[in-house]
């Protein structure tokens, strides 16, 4: 098989993870890294064993000689860099969020479709075996009708100017950097929300540092999510249905399995007053249940769906497969999903900023 050549835009931590992840893919390699700073590009190339370091993104787009470009510059630069590559006929994998604004996401999509150039948001979580298994279980109605999805993702970080997450000019904020995971999974599983409600905290840096949002989907299912740059959160994702519960094992970002609990809906039960009913309420029975941690809802099945490498190569392989088939979009991560998530994210941020302007949620 011919080696699939990647160009890398950006020298941050996520670029390093992506390049490292290519080791788990077959016949793939990064052949250049580009940065505004030649020194940064050279340092990154030496550390990650990449043959070429290029100063300037425009030069890289025209002279890189690669099969696809992975764009991991700050979110504020995603649209410009993606459009630059698409204009040059280069397929692009754009780190989440696809763009800071829904209009920019639409511009990327229209450019890619007009020029028949492949483009995809790098929401790598969707491609992990556990996420694929989650989607399959829901398609099989393993837990009946979905009524509720929930997710939490937060890390307590000290606001610092060097951290782009706290820089509004670079597209910072909890919703853009952390909320994208829950929003994208919800979009993938349930479609575009029909109602968005949110509250949060705007920090002194000007970005949303905490965000809690509830969504309603066309099916009637409800989504409830919390993300934060200033508070530790459980880092989880659950789906609740009429016949059970599904949850990811491990992080919402990088799950390695599922927890599945099935329970049939209950019908009306007449009150029981016999000796069995009295026994169930005996203190000794409850003492044993607390000691063992068992309850009527503690029974479930742990399912392993482990990923190879660091997990980043799955999205890279999807890009290669799509390009090989002549597809300009991924069926798993279509551009319309990315546009919808960008619009939902924008609605959440606008709501939080409006509240802050009214003196609500200003740190």
Give an overview in words.
36% of the residues lie in helices and 25% in strands. It has 363 residues and is of the alpha/beta class. The strands form two sheets. Strands 8-9-10-7-11-12-13-14 form an eight-stranded mixed β-sheet. A six-stranded parallel β-sheet has the order 3-2-1-4-5-6, with helices on both faces. α4 runs parallel beside α5 (102-115), α5 (102-115) packs antiparallel against α11 (335-357) and α7 crosses α11 (335-357). The longest helix is centred in the last third of the chain and has 23 residues, at 335-357. The protein is globular.
Q: Helix/strand-derived class?
A: alpha/beta
**Major β-sheet profile:** 8 strands, mixed
State the strand order across the main sheet.
Answer: 8-9-10-7-11-12-13-14
CA-CA gap between termini: 55 Å
Q: Using the alpha-carbon principal axes, give the shape.
A: globular
What is the helix/strand order? EHEHEHEHEHEHEHEEEEEEHHEHH
Beta-strand level of the residues, as a percent range? 25-35%
As a percent range, the share of helical residues equals: 25-40%
Q: If you compute it from the alpha carbons, what radius of gyration comes out, rounded to the nearest whole angstrom?
A: 23 Å
* Beta strand count: 14
Q: Return the average pLDDT rounded to an integer.
A: 95
Query: With helices defined by DSSP (H or I, 4 residues minimum), what is the helix count?
Result: 11
Ranges where pLDDT stays below 50 over 5 or more residues in a row are none
